[in-house]
User: Fold this.
Amino acid sequence: MKLRCRVIAVLLLCLHNGAFAMTPEQAKEKVELAEKIRNDSPQQAIELFTAVADDAEMLSFPKILFPALNSLVFVLIGQAEFASAKLMAQKLFDESLKQNDAYYPPMAQLLLGYVEENRSNYQLAESHHKFALELALKTNDSVLIAQAYDRISSTLRFQDKYLEALNLVQKSIAILREQDDDRVLATTLQTLGIIQGILGDYTAALATHTEALELRTALQDKSGISDSLYEIGGIYRKMKNFPLALKHAKMSYELDKKFGRKLDVANSANRVATMALKTKDLALAKAFSQEVLDRYLELDSKSGISGAYDLLGLIALESGDLAQAKKHINKAMAIASEHNLASTLISAQISRIKVAQLEQDFVTAQALGEQALASAAEIKEKEDEIILQQLLADIYYQQEDYQKAFEAHRQYKKLDDEVGTRNLAQTVAALQSKAEFMRRQQEIDNLSHEKVLQAAELKRKKLERNAWILGLSFLTLLVASISYRQYKKRKMAAERATLLQEVVDSKNRLLADVSHELRTPLTALKLQVEALQFNLVQDVDASYEAMNRKVMDINRLISDIYQLAQADSASLHLHPEAIKLDETLALWNEEFEAFVEAKGFNWQSQIKVAEAVSVQWDQDRIKQVLTNLLSNSTFYTDAPGKIALSVEQAAQHIHICIEDSAPGVADEDLQKIFERLYRVEDSRSRQTGGSGLGLSICKSLITAHQGKVRAGHSELGGLKVEIRLPLAAA
Assistant:
């Protein structure tokens, strides 16, 4: 009995003293196994790494512990376990600092910054990366210094500091070109490619991402290959090549499913669904959008979940299911609002505004638009501000609030011009930075070349002479290139100044004309008000009726100006629909005949259209054009006169002609009648009324339908307006 108690006591003592603790050999085996399975079985890898990291005995074996902690943090980030990743990265920093390790303190700071990047805490991430750079510079470790530059660059680009980011990532690449670490170089090239894409240098971005892809393919880095394919697809998306973007997104998704992090799989699935929607592949978009939602729910990514519901709403909207679209988008807005995700909330609100517009619920659309615009302005989301100003302009116009519509449209153009100017300035600065980078690369190449010369002393003179010739040729070419570029820049600046002056002159003329047009009804309105004020009017009702007509004149003029402003900025929205041309023209002909004859004119019509022909036109807009032209004819034709309509179908287009009898229009005026506020003197004068913008609006609507319009002399003695519309105008 005493012997048995003694054995038990010895066993307990051994356990207390760690006799059964993990040996260094066992720990090393666990780490090696975890490294092999970290992509295929990340959770199992986390358990193995954690077992080593949590073993107190491993503090005596830093060569095993520190790499295990380093890999563990990466896997935890991939599984979106950011809190655990931060704890392990901090442990790596503290323990490596205690043991005076040179490599892992800066690496731990890079990991802490990477955790914050994934949590969208970019300023905190930047401070960690800058601390890592300080530590790396003290150790003089080139690869660590390059990695620190790369990570700082990454956080800067998320804060829209693109030129600073470009400069730092170029420094990183310049260092890595001299090192033998293709894995890190590939990662840094990816950062460079992303920034080049943001700055609009798509050709350079594709070349950079392709180089990164080649390096990763040689290394058989499956996860890295997926990242490169994802980013190449992103460049094609920016270039509006959605089929190629979808193709690369699919390849990235398949690799991520096999080797990638959970967050990467969710993101690549999201890209597939979004690009499928862009290419009108609704079946594929629906299939992937549900998977996107499920994956973000698993990761508990609030921004991802909100974006997934927004995507489901857009797919439902494209499918014509407004109720389902509203349900999903409202859910996206609720999640984004609850978790203060400002940018995500604005995107969902934009989608909700589109639903409200289709429902003709302009009150809701206006309230949401104004709220989202204020939020976008607060967080300086310029692209969203542009979209919202354009949407609000259309909403105000639909509610006949032309003053607000005009102001929203003016703000949209102003913001669009500002963004274009800023992007141009960034692109120019980026090209200058790129030229400087190429110069530094040439210096590095020259240094490498000198080392080769030293190693091959027998060929030194010959190679040196060739190098001088090459350098002189390069310098000559560089000087010629710079001179030519400066010449082109000066020439472009001069042309731009001329064009800008022409635009300013044109705007000044238009403003002067508009002011004149507004002054006449406003003066009459003022006189009527004063007459009422001093009791000088005998018939008060007639006076009020006259004032109402002047207000309507001003309202029509503002509406006409707004339509022309939309046409100028390519934001004139058409709603084409399939219409049976013969039936539609028959109905219109009856209306036009009644209208013309009521004005005291004879009506003639001749319609030659096949019964089966169907066209894709915005029916209301085309009718607006014809009504406007017929109204002009009734104003400017001497009664009793004739007004005629003829419609004829050709192989690829429809020919429409409206003619009237005397008086006619002089040859010199025929080329100008479609200009804004231009009126023919004499018979077709201002005295007949109208804003002077009607024919300009007609021309803009026909042009928007990809058609043509021209004026000529009619055989009836007056004006002939001919319209040529394609059978399938969009």
User: Anything to note?
Assistant: The first strand starts at residue 577 and ends at 580. The CA atoms of residues 166 and 497 lie 30 Å apart. Confidence is low (pLDDT under 50) at residues 1-20, 428-447, 682-689. The first helix runs from residue 2 to 16.
